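Section 5.1 Outputs to date
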Amino acid sequence: MNESGNIRNFCIIAHIDHGKSTLADRFLQVTGTLSQREMKHAQILDSMELEQEKGITIKLTPVRMDWATGGKPYILNLIDTPGHVDFSYEVSRSLAAVEGAVLVVDATQGIQAQTLANTFLAMDHNLKIIPVINKIDLPAADVARVTEELKNILGVDPNDIITISAKSGLNVEKVLQAIVNRVPPPPQASIGDLETKALIFDSVYDSYKGVVAYVRVFQGEIKKGDHMKLLHTGQEMEVLEVGYFKPKYAPAQKLHSGEIGYVVTGVKTVSETRVGDTIWHGADDIKPKPLPGYKKVTPYVYAGIFPTEGDDFPLLKDALMKLSLNDASLYYEVETSMALGHGFRCGFLGLLHMEIIQERLEREYNLSLIATAPSVSYELVRTNGEVVKISNPTELPDRSFYTEIREPWMKVEIITPREHIGAVMKLCEERRGIQKNIQYLESVRAILDFELPLSQIIMDFYDQLKSLTSGYASMNYEFLDFRSQDLVKLDILVLGDRVDALSTIVHRDEAYRTGSTLAKKMKGIIPRAQFEISIQAAIGAKIIARETIGAMKKNVISKLYGGDRTRKDKLLKKQKAGKKRMKMMGQVEIPQEAFLAVLKR
């Protein structure tokens, strides 16, 4: 039963809302892994409250299913993966732990840009791909068109495609049968191997168990009581428990080569157990080599996260440490802001990733947070030729200290219906985009290849794209290179004082429009005071835009009934002097909405 020949390890690749999690539900039902009573809600593997609310998969989730066919028992290990481009790192980690992938495409929408990117990633890992067309029972389903797309784009044989309805369960057993027949079993480790190797593809922090590592065993076996070593960090540990995902933890005697399961490490130090590390055990005379993991991702979107209460800083630090174990693509370092106090500069893979992390920190760790505007990392060439990376606009020195600033550019792939090509091209060109290629898919859709600066994508580009194409376009992007551009630091001054958290780096051509928009937004958000408040946008010492919030005035002459005009003038003059004094001493409380105004500019 535990021979690796009976094991099939696979994941599901699909775009958001193409029925990936629903298909995973049907697998659990068909294989009898969960009873009808245990399936309390749809998308059972999307156990996080946020996943159920937003209807998306955020975290990869492993599950082990036992299924018999042709009189033979099989172990099917599924890793349910996210579909959004911001969580492609989760997908790459799943691909390193499996031998096959089920590619799910919606019969009404066809293949989408992000699915295409993940499929090519799976091909790079030499995974066996099983193409599946879902939602064939919908009136708008066009199976013939989608089959033609899969054939033309991915070179799929139409005879290999399985048409299903995950919602009704139609043909789901055929998919399981195809997994057993087409996905190769895990390779057998050579006999006489004196070492055990397992790849950590995910980790979670459990307040009772400590760090729990999700592993794929490539060689040997792991059992309770084994003394293991993490090859990258050098940390030694004793295995306290091993088991499978059913999908809850199900303890077992041991994990064999080819199996996917969990290992309770007993390690309490979160920083010691990193995703991508190799758990190893072997003879003393062996020089162990780590398993090839997957590349460490570089975050391109940065934002400051600060607690609204200064006393919550240690709690935020602890929460980020635990969350970074669960989400290895999250980067953070301590940052101090004049306006917001102590907090962290965090790196994310995209805007949705940033939003999810902030919500998870607030919900799971009960924190009240302020997030500053997202920015991207830049390369700065100093006058001495040294190249340094900066992720915070406040780190940008005076113009005399550097010769050029380089910003990250992305390769963007957009799939859109033909009738919207003009609008999409106009949007990209307005964002300083460079068109590279256009490829037509049959008679209805086209793939547009553009090069765009990341700073133009992270704000509202995706929303605009969806709105221009009535929601039909899909987009995928990947890093290209850093390019030298005419960039300047735009500061916002309130009462003449720079608010560092509101500083941004923008292209010189967009500086006036951005500064003017920000100043207007701030005017509508900052509450009026007893004195006049000036809001200015500046590049260095040059003011490029200004808005003024008028003072709240008290009618000091209402108590005068007649008499000489000079009595009124005297009171008004006294009030004017008082306002001037208040303005010199006054402090302006900037609400959180002002920081979010930069986010929504």
